């Protein structure tokens, strides 16, 4: 723990304070004093590292930044992005310009409330040749916990065999620059879990946009009395009902499911006494979101 602080802070005042009064190690047959000394040293080192991560690295602030982009907290940037990049996202993956998507993404961030995020330059976007479920499944294999997560994905109808679309919208990926020592808490595997959640939310947001545009076109035709047949009325009603359902589902996902779990996570992070507790709470949060039946819809009930 102290080595992490030393590597990240040239003026190692924190380390100096932690080691200024070292305790004598006295050998005894029962080793009780030795264990007590090691426990005190561990507590001092863990508290030093945790204080450094909170005060200098701002792990809670950086996690809130990740939440803003991956869990759509204040996701108005995504509305601007989908409106401007919708045509590009509907192209085949071989024709999608990642550079153009990134430019539109940066513009959307500057035009939204995300412009006030001090870490907004760490967020960026790209497209992948495989969906998030494919990539994450490689990390899940081989453990009991991994098998449970894969089982949850299969129940959601997200198994790789069911995804054959290769347009930009289905392979669009949010990414984030995670620097040391923040990477102690947010590893690459952890970030991929965020990407899986974002992929699910993004599909619904993109569908919401397409339904809204279709409904607006139908209302325009009706006002012009160009399409007033019974079939068109049924189609308009169905589109409206689908749009209503998607709106309610996204609201339920973000405000009633993810948000309460996130508040619990922040409380645990602030109460944690060492980095291990922070990591465990963070991983538990992501696993709950992925596995929870409250978060994802099964394919046959969508």
Keywords:
single chain; 302 residues; mainly alpha; two-stranded antiparallel sheet; 12 helices; elongated
Beta strand count: 2
Give the distance, in angstroms, between the N- and C-terminal Cα atoms.
47 Å
Order of helices and strands: HHHHHHEHHHEHHH
Helix/sheet category? mainly alpha
The helix count comes to 12
Mean pLDDT level? 79
Q: Major beta sheet, specifics?
A: 2 strands, antiparallel
Given as residue ranges, the uncertain stretches (5+ residues, pLDDT < 50) are 156-163, 298-302
Helical percentage = 55-70%
Cα-atom radius of gyration: 24 Å
Portion of residues in beta strands equals under 5%
Strand arrangement across the biggest beta sheet: 1-2
How would you describe the shape?
A: elongated
What oligomeric state is this?
single chain
Mind explaining what this structure looks like?
α7 (132-140) runs antiparallel to α10 and α10 packs parallel to α12 (275-291). The model is unreliable at 156-163 and 298-302 (pLDDT under 50). A two-stranded antiparallel sheet has the order 1-2. The protein has helices at 2-8, 13-19, 32-57, 59-70, 76-89, 98-110, 132-140, 144-155, 168-171, 188-223, 230-271, 275-291; strands at residues 123-127, 172-176. 66% of the residues lie in helices and 3% in strands. The longest helix is centred in the C-terminal third of the chain and has 42 residues, at 230-271. The protein is mainly α and 302 residues long.
């Amino acid at each position: 723990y102290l080595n992490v602080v030393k590597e990240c802070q040239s003026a190692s005042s924190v380390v100096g304070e932690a080691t200024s009064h070292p305790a004598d190690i006295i050998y005894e047959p029962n080793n009780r004093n030795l264990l007590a000394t090691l426990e005190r040293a561990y507590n001092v080192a863990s508290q030093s590292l945790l204080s450094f991560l909170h005060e200098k690295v701002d792990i809670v602030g950086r996690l809130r930044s990740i939440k803003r982009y991956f869990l759509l907290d204040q996701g108005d940037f995504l509305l601007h992005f989908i409106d401007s990049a919708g045509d590009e996202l509907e192209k085949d993956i071989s024709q999608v310009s990642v550079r153009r998507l990134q430019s539109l993404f940066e513009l959307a961030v500057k035009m939204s409330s995300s412009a006030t995020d001090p870490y907004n330059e760490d967020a960026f976007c790209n497209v992948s040749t495989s969906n998030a479920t494919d990539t994450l499944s490689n990390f899940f294999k081989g453990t009991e916990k991994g098998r449970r997560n894969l089982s949850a994905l299969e129940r959601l109808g997200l198994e790789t065999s069911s995804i054959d679309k290769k347009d930009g919208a289905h392979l669009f990926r949010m990414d984030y620059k995670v620097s040391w020592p923040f990477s102690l808490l947010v590893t690459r595997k952890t970030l991929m879990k965020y990407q899986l959640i974002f992929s699910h939310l993004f599909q619904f947001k993109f569908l919401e946009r397409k339904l809204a545009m279709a409904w607006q076109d139908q209302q325009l035709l009706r006002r012009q009395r160009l399409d007033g047949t019974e079939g068109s009325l049924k189609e308009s009603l169905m589109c409206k009902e689908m749009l209503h359902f998607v709106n309610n589902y996204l609201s339920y996902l973000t405000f009633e499911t993810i948000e309460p779990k996130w508040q619990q996570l922040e409380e645990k992070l602030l109460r944690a006494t060492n980095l291990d507790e922070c990591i465990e709470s963070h991983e538990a949060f992501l696993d709950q979101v992925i596995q929870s039946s409250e978060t994802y819809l099964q394919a046959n009930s969508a």
